[in-house]
Design brief:
Chain B is α/β, with parallel strands linked by helices and about 300 residues long. Helices cover about 40% and strands about 25% of the residues of chain B. The chains are: A mainly alpha (about 300), B alpha/beta (about 300), C mainly alpha (about 425).
């Protein structure tokens, strides 16, 4: 009995970690964009959804031509990353760039509009039904004995997310581009004066954020096994929760927030009720915004007067 | 006589930066006092601290309304307004508990409550309600002196109508006083710069203050406008018995207008006295010459 | 105008969009049945459309730049339509008369089907006006507006059908009161509640919900507030979906009674009555909103929208002001909820998704934030257009989304911008 309990706990812990890693991947996009231009990129969830759809389309086509599994995995993921980035880049140019000087609500409404537009674009151009997503990740033989606790997909998700996040941290910390990003986030005007091409940095931020969302999209689609046009909305909202939870604008915060959210959901559904999975996430969002709007790792900023 | 504004040992830190360092300022009834200092000396931060927008790191701000008792309005350990949840407790119990749970039992006054108590301000970077008319901007100032609610607004009975009429008349009077009456239906954003500054003053006056805080009222004004401003400030003081504390960079205006001057540098009070005393004070000259010759 | 440079630019844009939309527009996979559908013709559509649109796009920004240089010479141009109406009394009253005649004749001339459509449109008008208080006047972006709509609808549905735990609780209560006082309260509280009692009650309950939800979240900055209200909206929907004992879950509540208008009517006969009731509610809403706009509270809302810090520094309690706006908006949504329950006789959680909030928001955005006439026109356009252009129905949400983006970029003030009221008393004094 005792043993069963521990196993159940471990299972929940690992599934929370898996979900949390995905949330973290998407949350990074929110946090980076917010850090740079202080806009909640509402359409970020849709970029993730488009990434998943692109991967589905590419893998279906390649399967038809009889490509080997590993090639499909690489090509589908690569295409998804390219396309999501391209969408992210274009969205910024259309919906946000003209509104840089506008009052705060304008870009937010524009973002919501963009999000609704993209959902329905995929709905109309593809389908409203759930589509089966064949797993792209091979099964590891040596993991079989532990199957009840952790599957290959979960392990892969955790590992890939960790690698990507470490890479991102290194980029932001040590490269020229990363330094320019941080400078732009601190003071856009000043960054421009010292020769940082602010427009390029903003585009670059959207591209990186979208690429991360695409990776998250492919991973979760093959983990859950089906996608539709609406997955981006809920995932986006949860990833936003993760970003706020950790402290929006902070990269380690997004990772921590994602994990905390993943665990909250996993333990909440595991020990309380599985009907209310989304309610746990939203309640956490509401609570954190009420009691600690600056997030776990964020610093409170007082408005300039 | 009690000072109407009594700031003791006010300190404000932003992270590791000390923006204001144990500043003491007293203002008496009917005075025009200037607060001067080089850019970044902490003058606007001081305004934000005493109007409740920032919470001071240390020190105490107290006001004495001419018709009421002294009230501490902003303090390190807020000690004025008890949270409504605990209001039923007797005062002695509250006082003894204060040591242990200051943040739980007490909060400091919000900016609107401070304005209600009679201290109104203008902003350095003009903060008008841009898409409202000039008259409406002033009417907003009357908000805390009137009390029509939603039922009143919908039914619009005689009481509400009378109040509304009085508000409009009073605001119109203030616009006349500030010389903006001909622009009353114009949107605030369409006013020239100098008029916008005067509108800020009119709006602040509408709250019926006994102390008016002006943050660089002459910034961006031409000499004629500045001259009109001086007249206006005298008029406000003499006709309405409103004391004035102003931050200003225009030394000519400061010397002409103020009866006493406080000089701050790096958040510290470095000198205080009459304009003549300040003019010849070597510490002040050094602080200014070290930074900005034009202003001295 | 059409220089080589311009054409080249647009050509590149259209190439980019062909690339961008290629997988999603051209290849349609059905992984459930393993079929792939290639739609090459879509390349041409995307290419041509983006080629043409990019001209308009650049032309607009060029004009905007020129406009800024010219300075805002004709500031009032945006309200030219209203100016015209105000200046010519005959036109104004003629138009008003035509609208009134049209509104009265509508149900008799066009029949129940059309009238039902118009009732929905009028509900959207009121929803738009209610959200306009929150978003347009007070500047608080509320993305969970539909939650209060749901509260209103479920209040009437539950009290009218006496279903779920609340129905059961009321029955128990009536029995208990019976024991206590000896008289039966069964007739009063454990019978289907009358529409006329529930309508104000639902407004009150929705308003209180607005206060309860608003109180903790209204300290938040604009964009956070938007997300939290969105979260609240989803929580309420999920609770309605999962708490079967309260709301009968996803299958919803059916057989909700229509109001009794003094005569017994079947459901077709009652349509014109509901229609006129709705017209009355629209007029009532317009009246209230207009009164609020020129009141002390209304001015405080606008000041809050313009500059929160200055607003607080001028002695306005921002928390209280926000709460009143939030609660006002919410009670109007509650009223609409009752009306939708009455109109359809059946409600379920699927009618109260985020999309519904988004539609109401796009009504406000399209119409012009803060403008009553604009919001009415926006609501009529956005709710009637999909009904009459059936082909358009599929593209409805797509168009709504695009509308929100386009309006924000090209015309943030909406189709009819809000005209500031002036106060007459001054003119008298001037003379």
């Amino acid at each position: 009995m005792e043993h069963e309990n521990i196993k159940y706990f471990l299972e929940l812990f690992l599934s929370g970690l898996t979900k949390g890693s995905i949330y973290a991947l998407i949350a990074l996009g929110y946090t980076m964009v917010y850090g740079i231009i202080e806009i909640i990129n509402f359409a970020h969830g849709e970029i993730y959804m488009i990434g998943a759809f692109t991967a589905l389309i590419v893998s279906s086509v390649l399967t038809m031509f009889g490509f080997p599994m590993i090639a499909i995995l690489i090509l589908a993921t690569g295409t998804a990353i390219i396309y999501s980035s391209a969408y992210g880049y274009t969205i910024e140019k259309i919906a946000y760039k003209p509104l840089r000087q506008a009052p705060r609500l304008s870009p937010l409404i524009s973002a919501i509009g963009m999000s609704i537009f993209l959902q329905n674009y995929v709905l109309l151009a593809q389908t409203e039904n759930f589509m089966k997503f064949n797993s792209l990740i091979p099964e590891f033989e040596w993991l079989k004995p532990y199957k009840e606790i952790i599957g290959t997909e979960e392990l892969i998700i955790i590992i890939i997310s960790a690698i990507v996040m470490i890479a991102l941290t290194l980029i932001v910390k040590y490269t020229r581009l990363g330094k320019a990003m941080r400078a732009t986030a601190q003071d856009r005007m000043m960054a421009r004066l010292v020769g940082v091409s602010v427009n390029k940095i903003i585009s670059f931020t959207f591209i990186i954020g979208s690429a991360l969302a695409a990776i998250g999209g492919v991973l979760i689609a093959s983990y859950i096994g089906q996608i539709n046009y609406y997955i981006g909305f809920i995932a986006g909202l949860k990833a936003f929760t993760a970003a706020v939870l950790g402290g929006i604008g902070s990269i380690p915060g997004a990772v921590l927030g994602g994990l905390v959210l993943g665990w909250t959901e996993s333990f909440g559904t595991g020990y309380i009720s599985s009907d209310y999975e989304d309610v746990f996430a939203f309640s956490l969002l509401v609570l954190i915004l009420i009691f600690r709007p600056e997030g776990i790792l964020g610093r409170s900023t007082s408005q300039k007067v | 006589m009690k000072p109407i504004l009594d700031v003791k040992n006010l300190t404000k830190d932003f992270g590791g930066l000390r923006a204001i360092d144990s500043l003491d300022i007293k203002i008496f009834r009917g005075e025009i006092v200037a607060l001067i200092g080089p850019n970044g000396a902490g003058k606007t931060t001081f305004f934000n601290c005493i109007t409740g927008i920032y919470k001071p790191t240390n020190g105490e701000v107290a006001i004495t309304h001419p018709k009421r008792d002294t009230e501490i309005i902003n303090d390190l350990v807020p000690n004025v307004v008890v949270n409504p949840l605990f209001r039923f407790l007797p005062e002695s119990v509250l006082k003894s508990l204060k040591k242990y749970f200051p943040q739980l039992l007490f909060r400091s006054l919000k900016p609107n409550e401070i304005t209600e108590r009679g201290m109104a301000r203008t902003f350095q970077n003009i903060r008008l309600f841009k898409n409202m008319t000039v008259l409406e901007n002033v009417m907003i100032g009357r908000h805390c002196r009137t009390n029509a609610g939603i039922p009143g607004a919908v039914i619009r009975g005689p009481g509400t109508r009378k109040e509304e009429k009085e508000v409009i008349e009073e605001c119109y009077r203030l616009l006349k006083k500030t010389g903006l009456d001909h622009l009353s239906d114009e949107l605030a954003k369409n006013l020239p710069y100098g008029d916008q500054r005067r509108l800020e003053i009119a709006r602040a006056l509408a709250t019926e203050p006994f102390l008016l805080l002006l943050d660089e009222p002459a910034a961006g004004m031409n000499p004629q406008e500045t001259k009109d401003l001086v007249d206006l400030i005298y008029k406000i003081r003499d006709e309405d018995q409103i004391s004035i504390l102003l931050i200003e960079h225009d030394m000519k205006l400061v010397m002409e207008l103020s009866e006493r001057i406080y000089v701050v540098d790096y958040g510290k009070g470095i000198a205080t006295g009459t304009p003549e005393e300040i003019r010849d004070n070597p510490v002040v000259i050094k602080a200014y010459l070290g930074e900005d010759i034009e202003d001295a | 105008m059409l220089t080589f440079e311009e054409i080249k630019k647009s050509f590149l844009v259209s190439l980019w969009f062909i690339f961008l939309t290629f997988p999603i527009m051209v290849i349609r996979v059905n992984s459930n049945e393993n079929t792939i559908d290639w739609r090459w013709e879509n390349i041409a559509i995307v290419g041509i459309a983006s080629f043409v649109l990019s001209f308009f796009w650049r032309d607009f920004f060029r004009r905007k730049k020129l406009g800024q240089k010219k300075l805002s010479k004709d500031k009032q141009k945006s309200s030219a339509l209203i100016e015209l109406l105000n200046s010519k009394k005959e036109i104004k009253y003629g138009l008003l008369g035509a609208i009134i005649t049209f509104a009265i004749a509508y149900p008799f001339v066009l029949g129940p089907y059309q009238t039902n459509i118009m009732i929905s449109a009028l509900i959207f008008v009121v929803l738009g006006l209610g959200l306009n208080i929150v978003v347009g006047l007070a500047g608080l972006l509320d993305l969970g507006y539909v939650a209060f709509y749901a509260v209103g609808a479920y209040t009437y549905a539950i009290l009218n059908t006496q279903s779920g735990i609340i129905g059961h609780g009321l029955l128990q209560l009536s029995l208990y009161l019976n024991d206590l006082f000896g008289t039966t309260f069964f007739e009063i509280i454990a019978q289907p509640w009358s529409f006329w009692i529930v309508l104000p009650l639902a407004m009150l309950i929705a308003g209180i919900c607005g206060l309860i939800l608003g109180f903790p979240v209204l300290r938040l900055r604009g964009d956070y507030l938007a997300i939290v209200t969105l979260g609240f909206g989803e929580i309420i929907r999920l609770v309605l979906e999962n708490w079967n004992e309260l709301s009968n879950g996803p299958s919803g509540i059916a057989k909700i009674a229509k109001p009794n208008f003094g005569v017994s009517l079947n459901s077709i006969e009652s349509i014109p009555f509901i229609y006129f009731l709705m017209i009355f509610l629209v007029l009532f809403t317009i009246f209230v909103v207009n009164r609020l706009q020129i009141s002390r509270i209304g001015r405080a809302w606008m000041a809050l929208r313009e500059d929160e810090i200055a607003c607080q520094a001028m002695g306005i309690d921002t928390t209280k002001t926000k709460l009143t706006a939030f609660a006002m908006g919410a009670s109007w949504a509650g009223m609409c909820g009752v009306m939708i329950a009455v109109k359809t006789s059946f409600i379920n959680p699927a009618s109260f998704t985020f999309m519904e909030s988004a539609i109401i928001l796009s009504i406000v955005v399209l119409g012009g934030m803060g403008s009553v006439i604009g919001v009415i026109i926006g609501a009529l356009i956005l709710s009637l257009l999909p009904e009459y252009l059936r082909a358009f129905d599929d593209y409805r949400m797509l168009v709504f989304g695009a509308t929100m983006v386009i309006m924000m970029i090209f015309r943030p003030q909406g189709i009819i911008s809000n005209v500031r009221s002036t106060y007459k008393i001054i003119r008298k004094q001037k003379i």
